[in-house]
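Convert to structure. Protein one:
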Amino acid sequence: MKFGLHLTVSPRHYREIASLAEEVGFDTIYVPEHLVLPSEMPALYPYSDDGLPRLSGLGDITPSTPCYDPWAQLGFVAACTSTVRLATAVAVVPLYHPLFLARSLATLDRLSGGRVTLGGGVGWLKSEFDWAGRSFHDRGRRTDVIIDLLRRFWAEDVVEHHDEHFDLGPLQFNPKPLQKPGIPIELGGSSPAALRRVGRLGDGWLEFGARDLDEVVTQLAVVDEERRRAERTELPFEVTSWLPVIDDVDRVRRAEDAGIDRIATSPTVANGTPLTPDVFRTWAFALRDRMSSLESSGLTS
């Protein structure tokens, strides 16, 4: 079992907390993404019972929640670390033109020494799309095209593509990422369409919102069936879950048996309470002790 950290802290603490996370043994650091938030949040978030969006461990996303640029965030974290992987959870893929997204990721991959994973999704907040001048109703189809184009930009010498979404090339895209054949693309989502997309196109699944491990198993079966149909079962694939399953060895063992490869987590603090380095340090060292006991049980990598 691997462990990821959802970096939902003030940027002024990134250096200390990212370095400590790497020391403790987290294998991936995740940052969230929104472009902009409305002055009144609609209750449309698909991963909570009441429809209100939340960040792992830190409570509600409110209109005043800062929306930092994820590539700048991860670029800074890359400079503060040397081995931990850098990922989004999740970037709103259809808000981007594929050339801009491909360039940001390839640049970050080069600067970090090949440590980047794109965690992507189709988005749920329509107002973001409206204000960015992007279509909302076809965002799923556009995401499929963008994923294909990213992989082509990162691997092919000359790319040409023409459809209702993008009119490109012939062009040469550089720089190529250090990772070959390209940067891993892991996808979030739990709707039937999202799960099929994960299986058809993803290098991994970012699982959000499941109520228990049984629900994860049911959803993962949809992903696995689509992977078989797409003839992708021989390709590398990882499942990352935000389920709170690190309370004890038995729960982690059951998560591993369910097909989860990584548990992403962060300290839980009271809503509105800042997460300081001291709070994180206490939590992280306690978690390291727990991870050590899991390793002795043969459950961590």
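Protein two, convert as well:
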Amino acid sequence: MKVLFMSGGAREKALEYLLEKKVPVEAVVTPHLTTQNDRFKGVIWTAVSYGIPVVPVTKQNLVQSLQGISYDAIISCGFPYILDEKILASARYAINVHPTLLPAYRGYRSGPYILINGERQSGVTVHFLTAGMDQGAIIAQKAFDISPFDTTKSLFRKCREIEPALLYSVVEGLMAGRCDAHPQKEEQASVYSHVRTPEDSRIDWNRPLKDLYNEIRACDPEDYPAYFFVDGQQVCIKLWRSEKPKDDGDMI
């Protein structure tokens, strides 16, 4: 089974795991690498180190760019463009790796809202791709507990730690002709695709701190910290623990 690996994020661990397991990846497809968008440079370097061709694409030329590549399966792992029905029909299997427990938290920007909503668990889902965003049948899931000290960075890290083995277990099954997928329950679905801006980090300081805690930790403390204004001056908030364990590096 020839595989097309598509990514636009920091998913080099997943790609390398597949390559170490001898999954026949024919090509790696990414957006064009720029100084403003280089999150997936690790994916490119991994592909190059294994001698796998890298195909940079845009939304507009995606279909044309895939012509001439022989593949049986598509793996979308942090790929930013929605694949149209023509591309999905070109493969025997088309699967996606999503960093939540679907059908909850569909969409591109769900991480902060998992924290804002005070969820106690999250995880990774591998599902079939369909024309609807994150709506395909679920093949496999793995959950992890959320600590009161988790941040968006630590959630993403935990997902990346789970992804490689979970994805490979699905690919291994598909290669062997095994697949036990089940449809998503629409009544349990939620969608979060709002692209957060600095304004989303502004908090209402009139609310009790205990009600603001999850909103504050859902903000990036370096790039987009939570803030409020005092006498016209922006005051930013950063949380930390005085007795933080050393291995909790990207947590509060």
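Strands lie at 3-6, 25-31, 54-57, 73-77, 93-98, 121-128, 138-145, 226-230, 233-237. DSSP finds seven helices and nine strands in the chain.
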